[in-house]
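On to my pick:
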Amino acid sequence: MSNYRQRASRVAAASALIVLSALFAPALAGAQEDPYGTTETTAPPAVEGIVCQFDLEAAAAGTVVTATVSGRFAESGDVNITFNGEVVASEPVQGGATEQEVTLRFSVPNLPPGTYDVSATGPGFTEPCGRGTFTITGGTGVNQGGSGGGSLARTGAELAPWVLAGLALLGVGAYLVRQSRRRQHLA
């Protein structure tokens, strides 16, 4: 039993050491002195805490989508919304220590239904943020003049043969049940 207790106490001590080293390692690394003296970098500071939100994740072409980008921007410039590689909206922001919120509105481009890349980029962004993909649904969000491409509403007429076939099968089933019961009653 003492062997078990020794092993358990060793495992507990090793676990505590690992947890403590994980907690204090970043603080100790930051306290090290720079061996090269003070150096300046030309890269902008990382943009942390930037939040991008889109009010829709799928819509028809022509529908207006609102995107909100908020956070502290490292430098002044434009926040851009790109849809399938094309800039569809842009708003200027001021760099600095204050929290900002930018609202951008754009119309979903007139593209065939499918999934497309959409993101927000801005000054000092190390990578785009946002939804990642956006689905264009069939039809259009605005009247585009009947240029083809399925601008008519779906009426459900393509389901009519299936509904009629289902009703016919129900009728045949009801007839067969009635005949079976009639035979049992006569016997």
About this structure: The mean pLDDT is 74. Residues 51-140 form a domain with the Immunoglobulin-like fold (CATH 2.60.40.10). The beta strands are 51-54, 58-61, 64-71, 77-83, 86-93, 100-107, 114-121, 129-140. The CA atoms of residues 66 and 105 lie 5 Å apart.
